[in-house]
C-alpha cells in the first residue's frame, strides 16, 4: 500500500467529523444534506482503504453499492427539498415542525 492505513483513517475521521459538524450546526436543509454526503464519503474512503490493506475486493464492491444508494438518496432528498421550498417558502429546518406533538 502506498498510503499508510493510519493516514487513511485519520483523513476519513476528519471528513466524518466535518460532515457531522455540518449536520449539527446548519439550519439549511441543503447544507444538512451536504453534511450527510460528506459522512458517507468518509465511510466509503475507509472501506476502500481497508479493502486495499487486506487485498480483498469486498470493500470496493460495498462502496459501489454505497454510491448507488447515495445517488438514490440525493435524488429523493432534492425532490423533497424542492417540494418543501414550494410549500413553505423556506429551506430552514426549524420551519418544518408540523409533526411535533
Write out key terms for the chains shown.
mainly alpha; 3 helices; 101 residues; elongated; single chain; 77% helix; Helix Hairpins
The averaged pLDDT comes out at: 92
Assembly form of the protein:
single chain
Count of β-strands? 0
State which percent range the strand residues make up.
under 5%
Helix content: over 70%
* The top level CATH class name: Mainly Alpha
> What CATH architecture would you give?
Orthogonal Bundle
Low-confidence stretches are: none
Distance between the termini: 53 Å
Description:
This protein has 101 residues and is mostly helical. The chain has a single domain, classed as Orthogonal Bundle (Helix Hairpins). It contains three helices and no strands. It is elongated and about 50 Å long. The chain starts with a helix and ends in a 13-residue tail after the last helix.
Architecture blueprint of SSEs:
Elements: H1 5-25, H2 29-54, H3 58-88
Task: Please provide a brief summary of the model.
This protein is mostly helical. Helix content is 77%, strand content 0%.
Amino acid at each position: 500500500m502506498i498510503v499508510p492505513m493510519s493516514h487513511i483513517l485519520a483523513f476519513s475521521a476528519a471528513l466524518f467529523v466535518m460532515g457531522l459538524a455540518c449536520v449539527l450546526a446548519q439550519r439549511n436543509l441543503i447544507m444538512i444534506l451536504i453534511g450527510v454526503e460528506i459522512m458517507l464519503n468518509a465511510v466509503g474512503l475507509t472501506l476502500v482503504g481497508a479493502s486495499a490493506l487486506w487485498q480483498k475486493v469486498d470493500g470496493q464492491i460495498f462502496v459501489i453499492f454505497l454510491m448507488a444508494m447515495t445517488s438514490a438518496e440525493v435524488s429523493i432528498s432534492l425532490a423533497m427539498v424542492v417540494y418543501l421550498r414550494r410549500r413553505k417558502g423556506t429551506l430552514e429546518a426549524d420551519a418544518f415542525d408540523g409533526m411535533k406533538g
